[in-house]
Amino acid sequence: MTRKRQLDPAIHRVRLETLTIFEITEAELESLERGSPESLYLNLAVSVVSIAVSFSIALATTHIESIKTYCFFVIVTVVGYLAAITFSLLWWQSRRSLTKVAQEIRKRRAPEGIQEAADGPGQSP
Known about the structure:
By secondary structure, this protein is mainly α. It has a domain at 36-107. It is built from four helices and no strands. Helix 2 (38-61) packs antiparallel against helix 3 (67-94). It is elongated and about 75 Å long. The protein starts with 25 loop residues before the first helix and ends in an 18-residue tail after the last helix. The mean pLDDT is 82.
């Protein structure tokens, strides 16, 4: 009688009722691999707006005597708000890019009940 090694994993297989396979193009695969920049844009927008708000609060609540320091605070605040608007717009525009690719792939699916002709080996045309 042979004993199982302790490192052999237990494998449980559960059958699927249906399995749908989608064929995709190289461009679609590259788009999925590249991912979406939306989370990066949103993170940058949140970071920059928090910096701009912090500098705005500092400008509103303190008296800065040095003109150079005051100008620096104003420039950081203005650039921060402009960058936050820019990143927010980029996020808004690109937030659905991967969803659109997936929708394009799913649109190629034949409607239920319509069978496509299979061109496999052993089948005559």
